[in-house]
Amino acid sequence: MAHTADHYYVPHGSHWPIIASIALTTGVVGAALWFNGHASGEMVLFIGLALVAFMMFGWFGTVINESLKGMYNEQVDRSFRQGMMWFIFSEVMFFAAFFGALFYARELAVPWLLGEGAKFATHDYLWPNFSEAWPTNGPGGVGGQFETVGAWGIPALNTLLLLTSGVTITLAHWALKAGDRTKTVLWLIATVALGAIFLGFQAYEYIHAYHELNLTLESGIYGSTFFMLTGFHGFHVTIGTAMLLVITIRAAKGHFTADNHFAFEGVAWYWHFVDVVWLGLFIFVYVL
Amino acid sequence: MTTATATHDDHHDHGPAKGLMRWITTTNHKDIGTLYLLFALIMFFIGGAMAMVIRAELFQPGMQIVDPQFFNSMTTVHALLMIFGAVMPAFTGLANWLIPMQIGAPDMALPRMNNFSFWILPFAFTLLLSTFFMSGGGPAGGWTLYPPLSLQMGDGFPFLIFAIHLAGISSIMGSINVIVTILNMRAPGMTLMKMPLFCWTWLITAYLLIATMPVLAGAVTMLLTDKFAGTSFFNAAGGGDPVMFQHIFWFFGHPEVYILILPAFGIISAIVPTFARKPLFGYSSMVYATASIAFLSFIVWAHHMFTVGMPVTGELFFMYATMMIAVPTGVKVFNWVSTMWKGSMTFETPMLFAVGFIMMFTIGGFSGLMLAIAPADFQYHDTYFVVAHFHYVLVTGAIYSIMAATYYWLPKWTGNMYDERLGKIHFWISTISVNLLFFPQHFLGLAGMPRRIPDYSVQFADWNMVSSIGGFIFGASQLLFAYNVYKTVKGGKKATDKVWEGADGLEWTLSSPPPYHSFTEAPVVK
After folding, report:
1. Minimum-distance CB partner of A97 among B215, B230, B231
2. d(CA B78, CA B91)
3. Are A229 and A98 part of one and the same domain?
4. Are A86 and A61 in the same domain?
C-alpha cells in the first residue's frame, strides 16, 4: 500500500517511554528515601533526574528528527497542538488546587479561628486569645514572628518583566511568520533573558524573606501558601525558560518555517500560561 | 519526503516485534489496550484478595485473623487498587482498543505517549504495594487520606504519595490522548453526534480526569509538605484546616466517581441496542445527560462531608445539587429501558451483564439519593449503608459493565467466541452472590454498624456472616471469568466479523481479530 505524507504517522515501537517510566520512578524513589532520611536518597533522586534529562533529549530528539524529515502531516500537527492545550489546562487545574487552598484559608479557615461564623467553637475553646487576621501563621504562631514581602518592590518589577516577555515572544512569533530568522532569534533571546532575570529576582526575594523577614515555608498558613504558590510558579518559569532556550537554538538552526512551527507555539502558549498564573499570584498573594 | 515515506512503509509491513520487547516498546493501540486490561485484571485479583481478608475478618464478631492496623490497611489499599488500579485502567484499556476502531482511525493520536501512560502504572502500583514491607506498614488511614490520620503513616508515606502522583500522570496523559484522538482522528463523515456513545462518554470522562487529577496531585503534595517540609495547610495551629483537605480531595473525588461510571454508561448504550435489535432510544438526550452529569459533578463534592460541620446554607446547596444528578441519570435508565421496549431480545452473556447493570446500578443510584438527603445522611454517614451504596454502583455498576464489555468485544479482539455456557454460569453465580454480599450491608448500615472497623457488636453477626459467604462465592466466581477469557484467547469457535446479529458500528466492519493497524485508509461514514 502506497503511503504519502497525507497519511497519519503512526510510529513503530519506541524505547523512550519505558525509559521515561523508569526515570520517573527512580526519581520519586530517591525523593521518598530522601524524605525518610536515608543517606542514599539524594543520590538516587539525582540519578532519576539525570535519566529524565537523558530521556527528554532522546525522545524530543526523535520527534524533532521525524518532524524535520517531513513525516508529520497537518493532522499530526493538530494532535500536538491539542495535546499541548490540554496539558496546559491540567497545569491550570494544578495551580487551582493551591489557589483554592489560599482562598479557603483566608476567607474561611482563619476567620473561623478568629471566632466568626459557624465554627466559632475552636476559637472559644482552644484559642480564645487568637486575634491575628491575614497575614497569619495561626494561633500557634508556627514558625515565629515574620514580615511579608511588599507587593510594590520586586514583585511589581517581576510583573513588568513577565508582561514584557509576553510582548517579546509575540514579536519573535511575528518575525518567525515573516520569515525573519535573525529577528526571531533576537526576540527569543530577549525573552529568555527576561525569564532568567525574573528567576534571579525571585531567588533574591526568597533569600531576603528567609534571612531578613523570617518568612519561611514553615511560617504557618501564610508561609505555606506563599512559598508553595510562588515556588511552583518559579519552577514552571524555570521549565519555561529551558523550553525557550531550546526553541531559540532550534530557531537559530532554522528548524522552523513560517507555517510549520508547532514547537515554537507550544512553548509560547506555555509561557503565556506561566505569565497569567503570575498575574493571579501578584494580585492574590502580594497585593491583596 | 521520499525517504520518509519509505521508512513509514517499512514500519507498516513489519507488524509487531517479537517477544517481550513488543509489549514494552509497543505504540499500538490494541497492544496497549491489552496491557491495560491485563494489568486491570491482575489488580482486580490482588484488590479482591484484600476484600476476602476483610470479609474473613468480619465473618464473625471479635478479632479473628488480622490485627486492626492490617485490617485498616486492607480497606485502604483495597480501595486504592480497585479504583486506580482496576476500574480506571480497565476503562482506559477499553478506550484504547475501541475508540480508534469506532471512529475509523489508524491508531491513537499520540502513540508513544500512550505507551508511557500505560507503563507508568506497573511502577506506580509496585511502589504502592511495596509500602507493606516498610516500617509502619501500608497506608491504613482510608483511601481518602484524610489528615491528620494519614500523616501518621510510617516510612511508606512518601511512596504512597508518589504512587498517586505517578498514577495521576498516567491518567492525565491517557486522557489527553483520548480527547485528541476523538477530536482530531475521526473518519470523514463521523460527526460528533454520530459517534458511538462509548466515545462520547469517554470524551467527557477524559475531560473530568484532566480537570481533577491535578487537583488530587495538589492535595497530596500538600500532605507531603505538611509532613516533611513544615507547611501548615491542614494544621489549625498554623492557621490551616484539616477540613480543607476534605474539600480539595472531594473536589477531585466526586468527579472521580463519574470517571468510574460514565464509560460504563457508554458500554451499556452499545450492548443494549445490539441484543434488543433496535437503535438506541434517545441518542442525543444520552449525550446531553452525560454532559449534565459531568457539569453537576463539580458542584456536589461536599455531600461527602455533611457531618464535618458546614454552614446550613452549604448543606442545603450541596443536597439539592446532588439530587439534581438523579434527573440526567434517570434519563439514561429510561432510555435503556425504552431501547429494550418491544425489541427482539436475546440474552447472551453481555446482555445479561448489561441488564444486571441497569437493575443493580439503579439500586445503587437510589441509595445514593437517600445519602444525598443531608439530615438523613447524619445517620448513614460512615456506616455500612455507604459501603453498600458505592459497591452497588462500582461492582454491579462499573465492574459489571467491564465484564459485559469484555464478553461483548472479546470475540472481535481475539477472533474466537467465548464459552457462552460458562459465561452465563459466571453471570448467575456472580449476580446471586453479589447481592448476598452487598444487600445485607444496607441493613447493617441502617442498624448503625460503622465501616472500616475490624470488630462489631454481636447484633450484627448474622448479616455479616451472610455478607461474607456472598463475598467468598463472588470472589471465587471471578476465577470463572479469568478462565473463560484465557480459554477464548487460546482458541474456540471462530467469530464472524460482525459477531452479533444486531451489532452496529465501524469496529464490526473490521475482521475478527482486526488488523494490527485498524483503519490505514479512513472509512467514509454516511
Report:
1. B215
2. 18
3. yes
4. no
- Look up the CATH number of the domain holding residue A44: 1.10.287.70
User: Of the candidates B14, B142, B32, B137, which has an alpha carbon nearest to the alpha carbon of residue B83?
Assistant: B142
- Using only C-alpha atoms, what is the Rg of chain A? 23
Domain region containing A40: 1-72
**What is the mean pLDDT of the segment spanning A225-246?**
97
CB–CB of A98/B219 below 8 Å? no
Domain identity same for A66 and A124:
no
CB A113 within 8 A of CB B239: yes
Domain end (from A72, A99, A128): A72
- Residue numbers in B near A10 (CB within 8 A): 11, 27, 106-107, 111, 517
Count the Cβ atoms, other than its own, within 10 Å of residue B504: 15
**Listed range (A98-102, A119-123, B323-327) with the worst mean pLDDT:** A119-123
Task: Give the number of beta-carbon pairs within 8 Å between A and B.
Answer: 254
Identify which of A12, A78, A110 has the shortest CB distance to residue B14: A12
Percent over 70 (pLDDT), chain A: 98
Domains: count for chain A? 2
Cell matching residue B197: 456513545
* Whole-prediction pTM: 0.95
Separation of alpha carbons B464 and B480, rounded Å: 25
Looking at A53, A72, A91, the residue that finishes a domain is: A72
Whether A98 and A190 map to the same domain: the answer is: yes
- Interfacial B residues in 81-120 facing A (CB < 8 Å): 105-107, 109-113, 115-116, 119-120
Same domain, yes or no: A87 and A49 = no
Percent of chain B exceeding pLDDT 70 equals: 97
Among A151, A187, A154, CA closest to A267 = A187
Q: What is the CATH number of the domain that holds A189?
A: 1.20.120.80
Task: State the DSSP code for A148.
Answer: P
- Which residue is it, cell 459489571? B400
Inter-chain CB proximity B107 and A8 less than 8 Å: yes
Catalytically active residues of B are 78, 107, 143, 170-171, 254, 256, 258, 269, 303-304, 329, 332, 451
Q: Are residues A16 and A84 in the same domain?
A: no
| Predicted local distance difference test score (pLDDT) of residue B19 | 86
- ipTM more than 0.90? yes
Within this chain, do residues A112 and A245 fall inside the same structural domain, yes or no? Answer: yes
For residue B504, what pLDDT is reported?
A: 93
